[in-house]
Amino acid sequence: MGLFEAKGKGRKVKGMTRLIRNVLVCSLVMGLAFFCSKKQQTIPHYAISKIFKTDTLTTIDVHIGSRLPVAQLVLIAGKLRADSAKITNLAIHYLLPGNADITAGDHSFYAAVRYLKDNEVKQTDSLKDDNGNAVRLTVFGLDSAKARALLALQPDVITGKNVLGKFVDDYAKTVIIPFKDPTDKKDELFVIELNAMGSIVSSTVPQKEVEDGVEKWLVDKNGDYITIKDSVLAQYSSNGLGLPFNSIKSGK
Prior knowledge:
The protein is of the alpha+beta class. The protein is built from 3 helices and 15 strands.
């Protein structure tokens, strides 16, 4: 074997070693990137509060801590679906702090998602969980930016008053502000409602009625009323059988 031939073979071996090393490094980098991307998919905190089953559907009520974006709602749905693999028809209701499980309202929750059967999937159903299951999600409530804008409203009428809270009504797209005037000897409750422009769309001086130790504030002559307790405002219809059609946590 000649000297030049031996050197040529040596270069080939070194080149092959370098190539293998580069492939291993690239694989390691790609693996770390994949791990990091998976690590970022942190499932937000949630708590199951109720499971309701019928012959055709299982509905899970889930309390979430804030107004989560769609992607995070789907992450929670994927986790619940994976934990409930035997359930074929699954729907999930997302409730904000203050939202009640048992209400007289059709949509007293922030958002809802339903898993679709193969024959139910349409071309417009592009949303899927991490396992590729098609879901249909509807957000009824305001996103966090719009809610913050409503909560930041500070009308002149409440200056110097004792504000009992600011409650975002997701369905009316308004903020409800009950307050009292410290100089008012009658100790009346005043309730105003503002839209996104800061305009007062309703103003009420409800009448107080105490029943079984509960203060009910009658907001109209039909007997509809509100209660305010533990920073939660609950709205009741006169024929709602004592169940609120909406309940809202202050500042949420």
